[in-house]
Amino acid sequence: MIGLSTYSFFWQHSERAPEPLDLATMITKTRELGVDLFQICDYSPLLGYSAAELRDLRAHADGLGVALELGTKGVGVEHLVTFLHLADTLGVSLVRSMVNAPGHQPTIAEAEELLRVALPGYTAAGVTLALETYEQVSSTDLVKIVETIGSDTLGICLDPANSVAALELPMDVVARTADYVKNWHVKDFAFTRRGGWVGFTLEGAALGTGLLDYAGIAAAVRPNERGINQIIEHWLPWQGSFEETARIENNWNTHNIAYLKEQNS
């Protein structure tokens, strides 16, 4: 399935928005754009929702025919249990997380031990936990965690653009993690010269216009064959005004959905 996420509407639900979008509105926009999957990712207000508000959100998504996924950061046992409860209430079958969280950077061995405690609950509930590739933990170490634990409940959320910051080539990350991918954050990116010539900036681009080898990644991961959802994200820099930033953000959503549908047809 192709989906959007809170990162697809990053600026429109941020504090810079005159009227920030709430989750229900983002889910509605997802349906209006013709896709039926939405990942609530790194959206801290969700932890403040009451049980009734969570049930209402699920009913809203169900009514629109939009499936939900969750995303968070960290492998602390209590935190992962909290998100498992959220997954149960929202009807979610996949939670994306990261090894590190603000204020908590476990060693690889510590992360493995924490996951061993939390994972049985996920397995019993039929919820997959996918750890994202990113620059703070090498893809080699991430694969080591998944292989050492050896549970089909635990896999990888692929985002090869993140690992560029640690000088890992995107296709190296793909080759290393492909067998364990459970979720794919799809975003294009490009390098531009800073100030015209000094240094580089790595920033987002509309799919098909940057450096992302979508066809190569799809051939390695086989998302449709393996039932791996593709979640559209952006690295869209602030454009100087909310109106212009939101305009481009919405244009990228429309363009990227059309691009993925064409690539997957």
Kindly describe this structure.
The protein is globular. The mean pLDDT is 97. Helix content is 41%, strand content 19%. The strands form 2 sheets. It has an 8-stranded parallel beta barrel with strand order 1-2-3-4-5-6-7-10, surrounded by 7 helices. Strands 8-9 form a two-stranded antiparallel sheet. It has 265 residues and is an alpha/beta fold. The longest helix has 22 residues, at 242-263.
What fold name goes in the CATH topology slot?
Answer: TIM Barrel
The overall average pLDDT, rounded, is 97
Give me the CATH architecture, please.
Answer: Alpha-Beta Barrel
Task: Please provide the count of β strands.
Answer: 10
Given as residue ranges, the uncertain stretches (5+ residues, pLDDT < 50) are: none
* Residues in β-strands, percent: 15-25%
Tally of contiguous helical segments? 9
Main beta sheet, described?
A: 8 strands, parallel, barrel
C-alpha Rg (nearest Å): 18 Å
Quick rundown:
With 265 residues, the chain is of the alpha/beta class.
Blueprint (SSEs and pairs):
Blueprint: E1 2-5, H1 23-32, E2 37-41, H2 51-64, E3 67-71, H3 77-90, E4 94-97, H4 108-125, E5 128-132, H5 139-149, E6 154-158, H6 170-177, E7 181-186, E8 188-193, E9 200-205, H7 214-221, H8 223-226, E10 229-232, H9 242-263
Parallel strand pairs: 1-2, 1-10, 2-3, 3-4, 4-5, 5-6, 6-7, 7-10
Antiparallel strand pairs: 8-9
List keywords for this structure.
8-stranded parallel β-barrel, single chain, 265 residues, 9 helices, alpha/beta, 41% helix, globular, TIM Barrel, two-stranded antiparallel sheet
